[in-house]
């Protein structure tokens, strides 16, 4: 069974999967504060971008892996079917993935 580790901090969340998921989630929480929750696939879905809205680049997004090379071209707002959104900076082949934000 696949297990996910989700770090919640403020209104942001970031879900990790795979071999180092637990370690990475705890690292993120160490940096930003918050808590880590272990989840199986039955409990929640992984956010999936369903709609994409492109805008002019509007600055770095709040990202676990900042990537300055993705700056300067466009910022895409992705929305999951559950209503969560995230911002992604795209420039050439470079990407900077923001965290999923859940309205509450
Ligand atoms: Zn979702």
Question: What would you say this structure looks like, in words?
Answer:
The chain is mainly beta and 104 residues long. The chain has 1 helix and 8 strands. Strands 3-1-2-8 form a 4-stranded antiparallel β-sheet, with helices on one face. It has a 4-stranded antiparallel β-sheet with strand order 4-5-6-7, with no helix packed on it. Strand 6 (85-91) and strand 7 form a beta hairpin. The protein is globular, with a radius of gyration of 14 Å. The mean pLDDT is 87. The protein binds zinc ion (ZN).
List keywords for this structure.
about 100 residues, mainly beta, 4-stranded antiparallel beta sheet, 8 strands, about 40% strand, binds zinc ion
Order of helices and strands: EEHEEEEEE
Beta-strand content bin:
35-45%
| Strand element count | 8
Work out the helix count.
1
**Biggest sheet descriptor:** 4 strands, antiparallel
The spatial strand order of the largest sheet comes to 3-1-2-8
How do you describe this structure in short?
With 104 residues, the protein is mostly beta strands.
Q: How do the helices and strands line up, and which of them pair or pack?
A:
Elements: E1 4-9, E2 12-17, H1 21-32, E3 35-39, E4 51-56, E5 74-79, E6 85-91, E7 94-97, E8 100-101
Antiparallel strand pairs: 1-2, 1-3, 2-8, 4-5, 5-6, 6-7
This protein binds zinc ion.
